[in-house]
Amino acid sequence: MRSWKESKNCIFIKAPEPFNFKVNVDYFLRDPNECMYEIEENTITRVIEINHLRTLIQISEAGSDYLAVECLAGTKPESFEDKETIVNYICEWFDFDTDLLPFYEMGRRDLLLQPVIERFYGLRIMGLNDLFEALCWGILGQQINLKFAYTLKRQFVEKFGEHLDYNGKNYWIFPLYEKISKLTAEDMADIKMTKRKREYIIGVAKLMANGDLSKENLLHVDDLKQAEKELIRIRGIGTWTANYVLMRCLRYPDAFPIDDVGLINAIQFVKGMERKPTKAEIRELSAAWSTWEAYATFYLWRMLY
């Protein structure tokens, strides 16, 4: 049961232990070109859609135990159900339902993870709650560096998304799959991604618009390998993208993008290797991570960005 309370214009959500708000905010600051939220003075501001109503929320730390969530611009919902939906969205986004203590117990015995856990203690896998956004972000990031991926994302969002204006700033809503499903690759030609990636994104949007692909259906798949197979059937989704989505959206703790360049580079960096580790070496290093591969990967990524 998620614990929360309400006072005046704020909702207060009980944070689990262990959790460090600043460590998680620092993750959000990894690229200045992020367009889905604003970070100022340790406060996160973004739009979320609750039961078809768009709500501009501002999240800050309220002591060490709570997150304070304020609804801005007159977008505060009135019903208990809508307020609870906001709470559920934020808890999913911050992965509050995962007990990190077993991961830390395992990681402190692991020579590779031990210094990483000490540095980022309280970090959680910050999610992508929306399946379409997660799949698009995975496709956009294929075979390019992170900085350019953020540039493409901003171009895509600002071209096809909508926004709320508040205090002279635009707060963006990720493009809806219903809208993207009606486009052609030529409609997206001024976004500097390959034609194939444009086709992949439109193809995913069409599957979702037709009801052939949904987060709800994927969440009913209990087995990681089966869920991976379901995603890989989609044109443009390979093993890396599937595992990324399984980590960030569907919350499989054992999802493992073992071929990820960032993971490879992070292991090389942490171990001080003069060459990149081989896949066999990564398998050996990760043998003890069973059921925690996603968190191990996420923490190692933070050593680079």
From TrEMBL:
Give the signal peptide as a residue range, or say none if absent.
none
This protein's superkingdom?
Answer: Bacteria
Q: Which UniProt keywords apply?
A: DNA damage, DNA repair, Hydrolase
Q: Which reaction does it catalyse?
A: Hydrolysis of alkylated DNA, releasing 3-methyladenine, 3-methylguanine, 7-methylguanine and 7-methyladenine
Q: Is Membrane included in the keywords of this UniProt record?
A: no
Annotated EC: 3.2.2.21
What's the protein name? DNA-3-methyladenine glycosylase II
Organism per entry: Oceanobacillus aidingensis
